[in-house]
Amino acid sequence: MPVFLHDTMSREVRPLLLKPGRSTFGMYCCGPTVYGPAHIGNFRTFLLQDVLRRTLEVDGLTVKHVRNLTDVDDKTIRGAMAAKMTLTAFTRGWTDKFHADCAALGLLVPQVEPSAVAHIPQQVAMIKSLVDRGHAYVAKDGSVYFKVCSCADYGKLSRLDRTQSRTQATNSAGEANDADEYDRESAADFALWKSHKPEDGDNHWPSPWGEGRPGWHIECSAMSLQHLGATFDLHGGGVDLCFPHHENEIAQTECATGVKGFAAHWFHSAHLLVDGDKMSKSKGNLYTLDDLVAKGFTPMEVRYALISGHYRTSLNFTLHGVENARSALGKLERWTDRLLEVAGFTRAEFAAPAVQETQTAWGRFAPAWAILQEDLNIPGCLGQVFTVVGEQVEVTPAQARQDVVGLAKILHALGLTLFVVKAAVAIPPAVADLGARRWAAKQAKDFATADQLRKELTALGWAMLDRKDGYDLKPA
Ligand code: AMP
Ligand code: ZN
Q1: What pTM does this model have?
Q2: DSSP type of residue 402
């Protein structure tokens, strides 16, 4: 049975199948803007795309996963100029950080990770084709805009009401869209090429319309065309990208190539909230992976927490949720150890791909796989896994071996690795110093100072556990 998934364009749950004559399933996902560390909301979206890819692969499809890097836009240019760095050096640093976080979270590496800066000629060529075909116009300052009224079916993804002109000012998540800060003929039009402005510094490239840089939306049209062709199987992104970004991608590509049916399936994942609120730096509720690791959580626990809600529903992230993820993984590890013992497998054999790839068995995990195939229902799948874990039945070694194979495939699809050796949390020097001073005060029976130093440790988020002969420092 194929994997089924909701498609934003048709509003239907549809099977994901290989097109006749094609051997790979082409999947384009809008990637990170590399101007700072990605937050856990970004990672929820990338993780859900990763689970989709893994699930398709377990189902037997060969997937070509393309995820771009947005390394030129208003934010990256501002960031580089503020840091007094070249755009390349600035975005390279944040790209490296993104890759390190992806590896820690167990994300598979996309087959292609194209960068916008490395595809300027392709973007210019596409804009030229749009101008030649009458879908774009050149403004007095050399900027080029897409003429939305020239595209008869513009708005088909988000089902815009054509009688009401929608501006590009807000996105489909209701957020202000600051991607286009330039003048244009109609508020519905959007920038394809932005003429060079002094605030862009040295960041400009040649074009038939003068020096400038591409608008944001065109990069995904040019890079998907280059790496997957004019039509491909699936396009993914967070729900905020539906309008205007994806709507604009469809219009640009279909008008430039003259081929309808840009992406056959649209996969949008709902946003992550923190403690019921939209995440933002100003509210102090924005978490990166590093923030959570500093609190003592492992990346695998973070992964579990971020994928555990259904992709079509907003996920309310809480620290309590990551604690629940920790106990769920712990429970699963203890249960799996007993299962492996009955089956006569070692932990290393369990982790080996051969267990997953060479066998067709699902054992008691067949319902968990079936529910995952149904609209990528990850919470349903995890629920089925824990139903099996809770069963009070004796299994034979042969049955246990089938269960091991089934469980290994489910965990592979979800990208969850059991029995990861936990790295010791690094203790910041200031915390180590407070700990040493408090221990010395306690030894000297200066309890007032010891109490005061404990308060300072607590304020930094650390707990000090005293033993007879020493102490341990742990994130609180
Ligand atoms: P950006 O780095 O802003 O270009 O975003 C990268 C990806 O993260 C896009 O697919 C966004 O739709 C997605 N995204 C941004 N904010 C959130 C959030 N709070 N929850 C889930 N996904 C998000
Ligand atoms: Zn995109």
Answers
A1: 0.88
A2: H
CATH of the domain at 49: 3.40.50.620
Strand order in the sheet with 315-317: 277-278, 272-274, 315-317
Tokens standing for residue 314: 């907003």
Q: Tell me whether residue 383 is in a domain.
A: yes
Whether 373 is in a domain gets the answer yes
Q: What is the pLDDT of residues 241-274, one digit of tens each?
A: 999 999 999 999 999 999 999 999 999 999 999 9
Shared-domain flag, residues 362 and 460: no
> Angle, to 10 degrees, between the axis of helix 397-414 and the axis of helix 366-373?
20
Residues 57 and 184 in one domain: yes
Please report which residue ranges of 314-377 form alpha helices under DSSP H: 319-343, 347-351, 353-357, 366-373
Residue nearest to atom 19 of ligand 1 (CA): 41
Model confidence pLDDT, tens digit, residues 388-407:
999 989 999 999 999 999 99
Q: Is 399 contained in some domain?
A: yes
Residue 423 falls within a domain, yes or no?
Answer: no
Any residues with Cβ below 6 Å from ligand 1, and which?
Answer: 30, 32-33, 41-42, 44-45, 70, 237-238, 240-241, 271-272, 279
Q: Which domain holds residue 332?
A: 273-414
